[in-house]
Amino acid sequence: MSWISSHESKHVIIQELPIIGNNFEQFYDSIWSISQLPATTLELCRLRLAQLHNSEVDWQQQHQPIDQQKRDALAHWDSSTVFTPAEKACIEFTELYAMDVAAISDQQADAVKQHHDDAGLVALIEALGVFNGMTRLSLLWQVSDTDPLNSGSETHGE
Amino acid sequence: MASKARVSPPKSSSGHIIRDSALGLVPETIDAYLALNESIWKQGPLSAAEVEMIRLRNARTVNCVFCKAVRYDIAKDAGLDEDTVQLIDEDYKNSTLSHRHKLLLEFTDLYLQDPRQLTDQLKTILLAEFSPQELIHASLAVVLFNTFSRCAVALGGMPDELPLMELSLPS
User: Fold this and answer.
1) B53-85: per-residue pLDDT in tens?
2) Do A106 and B39 touch (CB under 8 A)?
3) What is the pTM of this model?
4) What residues does B72 pair with on adjacent strands?
5) Rounded to an integer, what distance in angstroms lies between the CA atom of residue B38 and that of residue B33?
6) Which of A6, A11, A121, A140 to mutate to test the interface with B (most CBs of B within 10 A)?
7) Could you give the count of Cα atoms lying within 13 Å of B31 in the half-sphere of its Cβ?
């Protein structure tokens, strides 16, 4: 049980503030509806953040189906051949975002834009903010339920 | 920090501070963002003054020059004055801020730095001062503010400093 609530799920805890909770979930859903980046790329970046934060709860969630081969290779994406150059640019950006957002270089931002244009870079940065937030909430609230927030249209983890 | 903006904002001008910014390049998220932002300020159990304290603590931690320069009128109207704002610095624990406000900043710092460092003792202290709903409100507020202050830093183009600006919430 989370210390902040009698519930185990972020989805249920957020709904303890119904108006804010509904708006938060709609914002979260909007991230998955963006057209500037493939949802599978967003999912790879979300999973990489979960790995970097060592959040098992977020790692076990599945918001978009990802090839098992890519899941297995994600920790060593740089030397793996299963990711596209566009995916690698976004994953590299994700790692820098997690470590020190102010340290991201123009070269790393340009690598994302080369594949996804200006709008894709903005979309990625917004999405990383939300994914980073969801992972930190898992750790701060100490939840154990792996249901993703938008579980109504989702498949679950392995 | 990148001094040059990494993206160009939308070419069309609507007169809306958010829609005309780089965020306007991702129109799918804007309405939901604005609705969430407004509800964080107006619909939760924490006062707008306390929400502003969370926002400014995050702004100073992330070092978002824009975020640090802004003061929201809704927080000022709720009683937050500039003298109190100036206490939200690295030495806030030794300041004259109230016990409640020091705890609120400590909770914000936990989120921003390492949520795993939350101790059983601090949980007990937090729950003695705040309701669970207030802590959920604080958590979601810092998620929102941190998302967009990091966004501003990652997109580049910020000056080294800006004068204080009093703003109303974007509608």
Assistant:
1) 999 999 999 999 999 999 999 999 999 999 999
2) no
3) 0.95
4) B167
5) 9
6) A140
7) 7
